[in-house]
Structure formats: C-alpha cells, structure tokens
Write a structure and sequence with these properties.
Blueprint lengths: L2 H22 L5 H44 L3 H5 L6 H5 L3
Helix pairs in contact: 1-2
Length: about 100
C-alpha cells in the first residue's frame, strides 16, 4: 500500500472512530443513535468506496508519472560506463 493511500485510510478510520465516539456521548438515546448510524452507514460506505477508488487511481497515475520522470532524469549507469575499459592493474590501484 502506498504511503498516501495509507494516510488516507488512517484519516478515514480516525474520522469514523470520532463519529462513533461522538454518537455514543450525544444526548440522543441509544436506539435513536443506532437508527441514525444504520441509515447513514450505507451512504457513507458508498461515498468512501467511490472517492477512495478515485484517489487511488489518481495517485497511481502520479506515481507512474514521477517514476517515468526519474527514469529520464537519472542517467543509466550501464550506458555511462559502457566506454570505460579497465584492466586488472587499474582495478588493483583503486586504493
């Protein structure tokens, strides 16, 4: 899981936990709270799935773009050293 996606999941879980705690300490009765949670849980689930999927797709595109940019900006070491011809004597004199 990417760091951004992990952060988003953590934020959503924290928000959800805050909502649950808030519902537990409200002046409404338990029955009213449970009914409210039940009524809104499917709506929230669909919203999270929809937006989470969009965020995931966008982050994948951005990561691929960054990866491609890095591949083009960092030289290929094999190509850069291809014309170097070292013999055994050159390798021993490294120190």
């Amino acid at each position: 899981m990417s760091k951004t996606l992990g952060t988003i999941v953590t934020a959503l879980a924290s928000f959800s936990a805050g909502v649950v705690v808030g519902m537990l300490i409200t002046p409404l009765s338990g029955r009213e709270n449970r009914r409210w949670i039940s009524d809104h849980s499917n709506e929230a689930k669909h919203w999270v799935e929809d937006h989470g999927h969009k965020i995931y797709e966008e982050s994948e595109k951005k990561l691929e773009k960054i990866s491609n940019n890095l591949k083009h900006s960092i030289p290929d070491l094999y190509e850069a050293t291809e014309d170097m011809h070292l013999d055994e004597a050159d390798m021993r004199d490294v120190s």
